[in-house]
What we know:
Oligomer: single chain
CATH topology of the largest domain: Glycinamide Ribonucleotide Synthetase, Chain A, domain 4
Protein name: Bifunctional purine biosynthetic protein ADE5,7
Structural class: alpha+beta
Radius of gyration: 18 Å
Amino acid sequence: MGATDVGYARLTGFPFVGLLFTGFIITPTGPKVLEYNVRFGDPETEALMLLLSPKLDLAGLMMACVERRLDSFKLEVEEGFAVSVVLASKGYPGKYEKGVEITVGQVPEGVVVFHAGTKKVGGKVVTDGGRVIVVCAKAGTVEQAVELAYKGVDCVQFEGKTFRRDIAHR
């Protein structure tokens, strides 16, 4: 959201309330900005959710945003680091097959498997999109969270599963 967008929001009576997300990539010449978002995006949302305190009233937080009283809301977060790894269908972002059966084994403590492009068919969970699942892990260090996330990735199986192996590696 640029300065013009913020000004427009203020003039029209719809001030910006939310989250500004900036996506970075590390290059040989230093960090570069990939994107700006003013929404909870996928897979960033999943990682952030793991850092919220279990005591946090999430509905209350959302209502505070809607009612423009966010400044009075006490945001509770836990210490630690969270990492998300997207499991995609073979061929994504191009053409990919749907209806491939997914199995999820016993994931380690600290790992959460979020479904994105899935659906149930005849009692089985199958792929139904390009970005199929987001595996997230929370731990005390980035390195531990990365290791744990990839252990979680190993617990999810479907034919054509593709994912990046360089998440948070620097």
